[in-house]
TrEMBL record:
HAMAP family: CobB_CbiA (MF_00027). Residues 251-441 form the CobB/CobQ-like glutamine amidotransferase domain. The active site is at residue 333. The lineage of its organism: Bacteria, Bacillati, Bacillota, Clostridia, Eubacteriales. It comes from Desulfofundulus thermosubterraneus DSM 16057. GO terms for molecular function: ATP binding; cobyrinic acid a,c-diamide synthase activity. Belongs to the CobB/CbiA family. This is Cobyrinate a,c-diamide synthase. Keywords: ATP-binding, Cobalamin biosynthesis, Glutamine amidotransferase, Ligase, Magnesium, Nucleotide-binding. Catalyzes the ATP-dependent amidation of the two carboxylate groups at positions a and c of cobyrinate, using either L-glutamine or ammonia as the nitrogen source. Pathway: Cofactor biosynthesis; adenosylcobalamin biosynthesis; cob(II)yrinate a,c-diamide from sirohydrochlorin (anaerobic route): step 10/10. It catalyses: cob(II)yrinate + 2 L-glutamine + 2 ATP + 2 H2O = cob(II)yrinate a,c diamide + 2 L-glutamate + 2 ADP + 2 phosphate + 2 H(+). Its cofactor is Mg(2+).
Length: 465
């Protein structure tokens, strides 16, 4: 498959990679190209900006979850019909899990044979930028640096100095530059960027992003670099079925401003395996829709909407009724917080929630956990039997207290450097709740089991009618 593609990487986090990648996606889209966006790693927020910029849903490419073959399958599946694929990297180009390259932008670039555009923060540098770029070029010869994009350049004279040094002494073409423009920074809060669904005047912000590229970035040269990517071999389908299965269950997915951390490919895999996805809102809907066979509550920012979530008593009561009737409920991170009896916000105020878990969820001023981990399933549940090994990611500023000691735990999590597992999550009948974010595409058997359990409940529900 001949797919023009470019991976936007950076020397380090904070160099402006997300801002510039989103700007380039928007610029090419406005120039008439069908741009398919991607994000390296387990990020949920950046893809929202990509989707808004291009009109095509951004996908996650993560070798920790999917391996090289899985990344190629997800990539080629999503690239259908696109003129150009732009992949935003994660952290610095070579940063992976621990001291390895696993999960890094470089590993994804090699898996896809994608040319790399390296974003360099040029503040307070001149000739030293050449040494930096040369190091990135030589560190792994299998990663092809197609060019450099200079960010936060002080002036046209500064740019000329940087360009001359990098091209002559590092041997990498400089394909553009952006000056110091504070107004294009994307807004942050405790989990990172403000989600696109919450940012007011997003269209105007995207227009400003495109405007900063004018005069300094030659889109034609970037397109030529993307077209230099070699053809990819045909990728066999090992994750998604050749044709979607006939829907056999109605699966509710809570998706709104409070809960929007989902991998698009994970949702599409559930649908391909027989789930009719029904989106619902814990903020706006008065109750769960009728005749659901299961519910999936993903992560997000429930802590930013506590008053509104607590006030929607009809939805909370319908969730409690469905749970007590035996409907499978799977909740990740923010979803688990919502299932607690109470969420206590950053100021110590308490808000009543669903109460399916008797504990109290407390927000913490500092991050509690971040990173990839491996999980061993401790108790049979709606996703996997005891003893199953899974991989996932966690990122949260809260913790849960006040749970009964005999409440069955879901997982033992093994984080980077841990010899002993850390207990996480809870199992209660057909409920599984945990801080662990799973990617169903990395474990299709888990997706199938979840749908099977929903189908079991559907039979009981229909027979009981």
């Amino acid at each position: 498959m001949n797919i023009p593609r470019l991976l936007i990487a950076a020397t380090h986090s904070g160099a402006g990679k997300t801002t510039l990648a989103t700007a380039l996606m928007a610029a090419f889209t406005r120039a008439g190209f069908a741009v398919q966006p991607f994000k390296v790693g387990p990020d949920y927020i950046d893809p929202g900006y990509h989707t808004a910029a291009t009109g095509r849903t951004s996908r996650n490419l993560d070798t920790f979850f999917l391996g090289a073959a899985g990344v190629r399958e997800v990539f080629t599946r999503a690239a259908s019909g696109a003129d150009l694929c732009i992949i935003e990297g994660v952290m610095g180009l070579y940063d992976g899990k621990g001291a390895t390259e696993r999960g890094s932008s470089a590993e994804v670039a090699k898996a896809l044979e994608a040319p790399v555009l390296l974003v360099v923060d040029a503040r307070s540098m001149s000739r030293s930028a050449a040494a930096l770029v040369l190091g990135y070029r030589l560190f792994d010869p299998r990663v092809r640096l197609a060019g450099v994009l200079l960010n936060r350049v002080g002036s046209t004279r500064h740019y000329a100095t940087l360009k001359e040094a990098i091209e002559k002494q590092a041997g990498v073409p400089v394909l553009g530059w952006v000056g110091r423009r504070a107004e294009i920074f994307l807004p942050h809060r405790h989990l990172g960027l403000l989600p696109a669904v919450e940012k007011d005047a997003l269209v105007e912000h995207l227009e400003r992003l495109v405007a900063v590229l004018e005069g300094g970035v030659d889109l034609f040269r970037l397109l030529e670099a993307a077209r230099q990517a070699p053809p990819l071999p045909e990728t066999p389908r090992e994750i998604f079925p050749a044709a979607p299965l006939t829907p056999r269950v109605r699966l509710g997915v809570v998706r709104d401003a409070a809960f929007n951390f989902y991998y698009q490919d994970g949702l599409e895999l559930l649908a391909a395996l027989g789930a009719e996805i029904v989106f619902v809102s814990a903020l706006a809907d008065p109750a769960l829709p009728p005749e659901l066979d299961g519910l999936y509550i993903g992560g997000g920012f429930p802590e930013m909407f506590l008053e509104k979530l607590a006030a929607n008593k009809g939805f909370l009561e319908s969730l409690s009724r469905a749970f007590h009737l035996g409907m499978p409920v799977y909740a990740e991170c923010g979803g688990m917080m919502y299932l607690c009896r109470v969420i206590c916000d950053f100021e110590g105020r308490e808000y009543p929630m669903a109460g399916l878990l008797p504990g109290v969820c407390r927000m913490h001023s500092r991050r509690v956990a971040l990173g990839y981990c491996e999980a061993r399933v401790l108790a049979d549940n709606i996703l996997a039997p005891a003893g199953t090994r899974l991989v996932g990611h966690e990122f949260h500023y809260s913790y849960i207290e006040g749970m009964p000691r005999d409440f069955p735990r879901a997982y033992a999590l093994y984080r980077e450097g841990d010899r002993e597992g850390v207990l996480d999550g809870y199992v209660h009948g057909n409920l599984l709740a945990s801080y662990l974010h799973l990617h169903f595409v990395s474990c299709p058997e888990v997706a199938r089991r979840f749908i099977d359990r929903c189908e079991d409940y559907k039979r009981q529900r229909v027979m009981g009618c």
